[in-house]
Design a protein that fits this description.
Strand content: 5-15%
Low-confidence stretches: 18-30, 261-269
Number of helices: 13
Number of strands: 7
Shape: globular
Order of helices and strands: HHHHEHEHHEHHEEEHEHHH
Structural class: alpha/beta
Helix content: 40-55%
Mean pLDDT: 88
């Protein structure tokens, strides 16, 4: 009975109510909303508060469901990831985007494509990217040789860059690796500041790739790569916002790094609530999808050359 009394006190009812068959007397937790195909991704009230690209994407999603579409499909030209790639985004992943839930690898790849384009327009040529949709924990574990070849391609093609930004997903968590080839350093930005043990398999693979890279390329490169944790913005505990915080780090290391009004931008962001702070990222991704993937004339539209 002592255990029952303690449990009753914890849930806020009497022992009799706890032990009775009247379930309604016992408080229950709210059930989090989930994706329902064809239903609104957010409430009507929330939808009216969203910025333009997200509202347009929501309208497209509802129309796509009427046509029984389940994927957003794109084609990535060779100049982005050094070979042609297909992009497949499950319709259900839009729910994650609209509700600031865990960010899928395909949407993280979209964010990288967005920043690649912005860097090119701003003549930022010293930053490269690894495609997170092609290199992640699943491929490191199950397709080790192919993944090693992909990493070697990304490093070789971009070894002249000061930074090669690599969003990496493992154990349902995002971190950002900044591979600095000339220094032999890999800076690790983790929104939860975990230790480096969680992705040791990737580190071993990168060391193997580094040895091959050194053999094939002349230069005064470090003997091995050194992995170094560096401070970054931290996600609130108990949230799935790590992907959005990694996107924020990417933004700070790319286009925002060139911003002459850096102080004012930082000051304004500090005044925002986390969901407001990250809304700009979701709007950026929604804009890319509408403009460059869904639109037939977009850079990544599969219909662009037909």
């Amino acid at each position: 009975m002592e255990t029952a009394a303690a449990l009753a006190a914890q849930v806020g009812c009497t022992v009799e109510e706890l032990l009775s068959a009247h379930d309604a007397a016992v408080p229950t937790a709210d059930i989090a909303p989930k994706f329902v195909y064809g239903a609104d991704l957010v409430s009507k009230e929330r939808l009216h508060q969203l910025p333009t690209h997200m509202r347009n994407l929501h309208k497209w999603y509802l129309d796509a469901c009427k046509e029984n579409k389940t994927f957003i499909v794109g084609n990535i030209p060779e100049e982005y990831y050094f070979r042609r790639e297909d992009l497949h985004i499950e319709i259900s992943e839009l729910w994650q985007l609209f509700n600031l839930d865990s960010l899928d690898k395909s949407l993280m790849s979209c964010y990288c494509l967005l920043k690649i384009d912005e860097c090119r327009r701003n003549k930022i040529t010293n930053i490269g990217f690894v495609d997170p949709d092609k290199v992640h924990h699943g491929t490191v574990k199950d397709k080790t040789e192919d993944t090693g070849g992909n990493l070697l391609r990304f490093i070789t093609e971009q070894h002249f860059c000061d930074s090669i930004l690599f969003p990496y997903n493992y154990s349902f968590h995002w971190i950002l690796l900044d591979i600095q080839v000339n220094k032999g350093i890999v800076e690790v930005r983790d929104p939860l500041s975990r230790d480096l043990e969680g992705f040791r398999d990737l580190q071993h693979l990168l060391q193997r790739v580094w040895k091959v890279f050194k053999k094939r390329n002349k230069g005064n490169f470090a003997e091995t790569l050194t992995f170094t944790p560096v401070p970054c913005a931290q996600q609130p505990q108990g949230t799935n916002l790590c992907g959005y915080y990694v996107c924020e780090s990417i933004r700070m290391l790319t286009t925002e790094k060139q911003n002459d009004n850096r102080f004012n931008v930082d000051f304004m962001r500090e005044k925002l609530q986390p969901h407001e702070h990250l809304l700009g990222i979701t709007e950026e991704v929604a804009g890319l999808l509408m403009r460059e993937v869904i639109d037939d004339n977009g850079l990544f539209s599969p219909n662009r050359f037909f």
